[in-house]
């Protein structure tokens, strides 16, 4: 007996449909096993949250014990990420305030130096702001070659990073545009 491809697909569809119909009519026949529930060995406080990074709105479950974050993982019940995590979301634990490996002091290395020195925050902020102002003042362009008002500097660029959330990116873009920067980019687009 020869079956054409079309006849084979019709027969296969009818057979599969018949199996499901029998299962639907007879409730004693189980078509799938019930999901296995794994008991937790230790109860800790779990709360759901939304990822602060790229605006997608992925959901995460944060587990805390004694006031410290012990685990962050994707929320399998969340409709957007369904338990998955992008590279930024997967690093939420590393960025938490109670992470013992997170840097909490300013480390500075002299140009051409090999040793790191601990510095105060006030010193670092003052030094960065002074360098930005000096560079902007020496490279500021008020008008282009045609006499058009441009008010910009091409000597400073800004490259955003994945540790910034949406609000920080917005404020950083406003600040850099106010300084006259034209080279504003984010590493995810490069």
Describe the protein's architecture and organization.
6% of the residues are buried. Helix content is 33%, strand content 25%. The longest helix is centred in the N-terminal third of the chain and has 21 residues, at 5-25. Among the domains are: 48-95, Phosphorylase Kinase, domain 1 (2-Layer Sandwich); 106-189, no CATH class. The model has no long low-confidence stretch (mean pLDDT 82). It is an alpha+beta fold and 190 residues long. It has a 3-stranded antiparallel beta sheet with strand order 1-2-3, with no helix packed on it.
SS field, number of helical segments: 5
Structural class, by secondary structure, is alpha+beta
Distance between the termini: 60 Å
Catalogue the unreliable spans. Answer: none
Mean pLDDT: 82
Write down the Rg: 29 Å
Number of strands: 8
Percent of residues in β-strands: 25-35%
Please give the order of strands in the largest beta sheet: 1-2-3
Overall 3D shape: elongated
Largest sheet: 3 strands, antiparallel
> How helix-rich are the residues, as a percent range?
25-40%
